[in-house]
Description:
Layout: E1 14-26, E2 28-29, E3 37-40, E4 44-48, E5 57-68, H1 83-96, E6 101-102, H2 105-112, E7 136-137, H3 142-154, H4 158-177, H5 182-200, H6 212-221, H7 227-239, H8 245-255, H9 278-295, E8 312-315, E9 318-321, H10 323-340, H11 380-396, H12 407-416, H13 422-439, H14 448-458, H15 463-472, H16 480-493, H17 504-520, H18 524-537, H19 542-550, H20 559-563, H21 565-574
Parallel strand pairs: 2-7
Antiparallel strand pairs: 1-5, 1-6, 3-4, 4-5, 8-9
Amino acid sequence: MLQITTGKLFTRATGRENRLRGILFTNLYLERWPEQVLEGPLFGYIIQTSELTASPKTLVYEFTERIETPHSGPAFFISHGADPYLQDMATVISFALNCICSPDIDLVRRLTSGQRGIATGQAPSKFVRRVFDKEVFSQPGESDAFVQFVNHLLGLHRKTYLGVMRAIRTYVTGLHRVADDLELAYALMVAAGESLTQDFDRYTSDWNSVNEKKRCAIDQALNGASDDLAKRVRDAVLSFEHAALARRFQAFVVANVSPEYFKAQFEKDSHPVGRSDLPEVLAAAYRARSRYVHQLRQLPDMVTLGHGHFETVIVGRSKMLTLQGISRLIRHVIMTFVQQQPVVEKELHDYRMELSGVAQVRLAPSCWIARADGNISGEGRNKFEGFLEELACAVIGLPGATITDISEVLKKFVVQAENMKAEKRRPYLALLVMFNAVAGEKAIPRSASVEALIQKDLDAPCAEALVALAFFGEVPECSLEDHCSTFQNYRRRRGEKSGIRFPRLFEAAVALDLAERYRSTGQFERSKEVVAEAADDYPEHTELRRLLEVVAENVPLRWREVLLPELGTKDSEHS
């Protein structure tokens, strides 16, 4: 939000300016207080209030919020309010000035109180120097360096800015966790550096970067294959391989450690890391992060003793960074990276989805399912899913449920059907036959060629055919084994990009059709297993759960009677 309000991303004039201010709480004393003002043309100004004995201290942040003129029509957006900007600025102050700063006074009080953590056994100030002290006095030159850093940060390319802000937030969150979870704090600080690594190190995998065990096994399997085939196999593996993440992390950090890092003023016995130690301590830090994330392993005791603010300790024969060491190193790396990045005055970037309070959600099918403009060939699965969602609500009888008229879409489809690939055509064919069943006079005529495609594509085992056949109460012509494997394959792939997902009602309908086929062929125990799986997949449906208690070997399973008991009873009476 801080970068957006500078106006550098606007393509139109500023339509509105709001002068906003808010309060931040901190343990920081600005240098030359009380007259010191942190001021920059891009971010506004920050001044400390004059309470002599207040703890925490209070900062007033005042800035101009700029809102771009809309594309057309009258302006409808007035202001985001100060809160999202205060959150961002508090994070930047915490990071750049090495202190605690937040709009939440209770958080600042807790972190700077000197109170020992229940899980850590020590106050946060015992693990990281300066940050958690009750009073932090800024040093000469820090205020100017802060203004320069923030102005440079806000001038970055948008992609770089977003990546850096993610890293800074993660780093600051890691500092906050020092109060209650040392392992999480350590992992978050490593993750802050790792996030920049994966976004901005321009790393490309080569075959030697693949895990040696995997690489050797593939090389052995390719022994005797042609050079062209071997290269294509290795390239295919590399295209999905997140190779050597630890190595990439190490290389990125080392590349962003400037000579000044080793020229800081060190206290006696602080044991700072040397340049030649970096590969070793970074490998150990990455292992500690991975062990915590995957196994919840604790840090070695030597790392968490919390005395003396040592930056490195010896664990076994290996040197390892402490919380003091990892926090100083990652902070330096992020700041160095920022300073090395170019700035731009103006940039074309669609920032609308990045505004505070904006969320991207899926629209109801009625908003998009009937759109027939453009190329519809790739929209079959989405439209079929949307139709089934509406149909399920209508069949269940939810108040206000309607089925959108998609006749224009289907008219366009039947013209293009023969030229479509089978995987794109199948959902449309199932949509066509099911829509026609409920559309009445809106039903789409089916030509002989379309009928032939329906027979060809939907007679083969596929998820679309199973749901359509279940809806019409018809038994698939495929074998029971193919019926089962097709449904299992649907379940495995429904969350994948190439999969398709049906409402729970229709998933359960297909499952009960499968269970009925098992029952009718004398495989009653397997039938009960399928019913149990269906009940577990539809836990909110009490009738389906109750079916497990009353299912009988000689009673047919009809999904409408189970899933739609009122409608199922009426259908039985009419028949």
